[in-house]
Amino acid sequence: MKPKPRATRSKLTIDVLVDSNLWTKPGKMRSVVRRAIAQAATTQSTSGSELAILLTDDSAIRQLNRLWRGIDAPTNVLSFPAAAKRAADEPSHLGDIVLAYQTIAREARAERKPLAHHVAHLAVHGFLHLVGYGHECDADAEAMEQAERDILHRLAIPDPYRQRTTKAAAKRPVPKTAPRHRKTA
Q1: Rounded CA gap, 124 and 150, in Å?
Q2: Which H or E run contains 97?
């Protein structure tokens, strides 16, 4: 599990660690994640900052979810914003993002989208949490979703929130109070 740091055009240092053999194409996924984060970083003031991304599995993310959020279940992405600024002469650490292979792969299959697109979306989602976006209320969720759409559009990735018209989706009832955005972290 050796990090491979790489500076992007925005001078954001992105360390991607692979901690599960389930990520069968780790080089490709590192590239997907770095590209997505680099694009997201162009929309924020992140120059001179760094972040870490961990590509892991459902077991590891379940433990983190239980420890930090009190939820004993795996999730697709968790974000851990850095608690404090470092010294003035050190890079600012934005935080860490954790992505779980099985949950992400299962969601991508269910939504009939390429795994790389879903990974990129969740990396962007996690990054936006690190820079202060949230989805606790509808207005915040809408702002975050629009930011995600804009970033993903620049990556030529279709809108992840666009409703697909499938037989399965048509059969599922949607409650009137359903949240617009499934809570990840």
Answers
A1: 11
A2: strand 92-100
Measured distance CA(169)–CA(144) in Å, rounded: 24
Give the predicted TM-score (pTM) of the model. Answer: 0.81
The pLDDT tens digits of the residues spanning 148-173 come to 999 999 999 999 988 655 544 444 44
Instruction: Identify the CA nearest to 138 among candidates 181, 176, 174.
Output: 181
CA–CA distances in Å: residue 169 to residues 90, 106, 115, 165: 49, 16, 20, 6
Distances (CA, A) of 116 to 31, 50, 86, 183: 10, 23, 33, 21
Cα distance between residue 165 and residue 6, in whole Å: 40
- As a whole number of Å, the CA-based R_g of the chain is 16
Q: Show me where the domains of the chain are located.
A: 6-171
pLDDT digits (tens, 9 = 90+) for 65-98: 999 999 999 999 999 998 766 666 666 889 999 9
The domain made up of 6-171 has a fold known as Collagenase (Catalytic Domain) (3.40.390)
